[in-house]
Amino acid sequence: MSRRTAPIPAPHAQPFQAGIQHPDLWLWDSWTLQGVEGSLHLYCLALSQTGFDGSLILPGQRNALAALLPPIELPMPLSH
């Protein structure tokens, strides 16, 4: 089975300050994990602001489009 995905941008190169606003993604929930070396890693659920065909996904469309996405199949449990 083949599945098309919307464009996924490279990680944002600049640190976020005074909030998190990504220039290419609509962000939902986020969380951090502290690595064994002590650094914090930021993770976030997100939807591309660009659709499969290159058209823009506007703020009012993002929740409706996200509801159409298939569930994510994880290769392993998130916790142990």
Short description:
The protein is mainly β and 80 residues long. The chain contains one helix and two strands. The chain has a domain at 25-68.
Structure description:
With 80 residues, this protein is mainly beta. The chain has a domain of 44 residues. The protein contains 1 helix and 2 strands; from the N terminus they run E-E-H. The chain has a two-stranded antiparallel sheet with strand order 1-2. The mean pLDDT is 76.
Task: List descriptors.
single chain; mainly beta; 80 residues; two-stranded antiparallel sheet
Outline type: globular
Total helical segments: 1
Give Rg in angstroms.
15 Å
Give the helix level as a range of percent.
Answer: under 10%
How far is the N terminus from the C terminus?
Answer: 30 Å
**Helix/sheet category:** mainly beta
Task: Give the rounded overall mean pLDDT.
Answer: 76
Order of strands across the main sheet = 1-2
Question: How are the secondary structure elements laid out?
Answer:
Blueprint: E1 25-34, E2 40-48, H1 62-68
Antiparallel strand pairs: 1-2
